[in-house]
Amino acid sequence: MSTLLPPTVRALERGWLNCNQVLLFEAGANVLIDSGYCTHREETLALLAGPVGLDGAPLERLINTHCHSDHMGGNAAVAHVYGCSITVPEGEVKHIVPWTPQSAWMAQFDQRADPFFHDETIAAGDTFEGGGLEWEAHAAPGHDMDALMFFEPRHRILISGDALWENAMGFVWPEEGGTNPYIEAAFETLSAIEALDPAVVIPGHGAVFAGARGAIETVRSKLEAFSQDPRKNARHVVKVMFVFSLLDRGTMAVDEVPGYLARVECHRQMNERFLGLEPQAFADWLLADLVRAGAVHVEGGAVRATSKA
């Protein structure tokens, strides 16, 4: 729990398979922001039920910053246990209704989520009450073009989702030649955050941090590099998505990696469009780069992620 936050706002820091959850406490009107990944639903429910969570109190509403699997994968389980309503960004409805296309989209990344029904939508310009405070919804496109972030102006708290972490942000999709709309949107989101000038940021992943200016400059620099070199961006996407899947799977045999990369559409597309490597060379490059970065560990013919799920 962060000392940077007022007592009615609590961030539950998770890892990289599960996003952080944010609890906004108010008698009879507790709100949860985001719900984590589906395969860790029991861990999420235990956190919510325990002393750092709701500790037996009811939950009225669950609101998503965006509808990627690590942010909405636990929606169904949380709603089932607490009977809370679910609110999603207005722009995300087309991705989750009907559910079949959403499931197919996630399969491209070797991801999944439990299907759920939403009760309400929220859009940029809307406000909601949580923790005795009024929160503003702001557009946060880039990583997810329909994402929102939530700002509380009194204490200048920003719940940023994957639009800004302390030293990075959620990946942006690479594009060949010309202007990349995802990167341009991410730049616009950073400018919007800069204008809000938050005193405290609760990111979708990683620790709560004070101020946003340093983080904004770090992310801008990375986006500039990706804009200049789409292949660098593609390599980044492959590494992030592979580690994410490892966190879900636990481990993978090294000799299975080439076939896995060829089978999962996200990796196959990145290789075909940007890298042009043979399957074994693609796998060798990926594992060597991740081992060098300390992101994975290879032992006994198996590869395992080193970061917290």
TrEMBL record:
GO molecular function, one term: hydroxyacylglutathione hydrolase activity
SUPFAM superfamilies (UniProt xref): Metallo-hydrolase/oxidoreductase
Enzyme Commission number, as recorded: 3.1.2.6
Domain Metallo-beta-lactamase: 18-205
Alphabetized Pfam families for the sequence: Lactamase_B
Keyword 4Fe-4S among UniProt keywords: no
InterPro entries associated with the record: Metallo-B-lactamas, NDM-1-like, RibonucZ/Hydroxyglut_hydro
UniProt keyword Hydrolase present: yes
Keywords: Hydrolase
Protein name according to UniProt: Hydroxyacylglutathione hydrolase
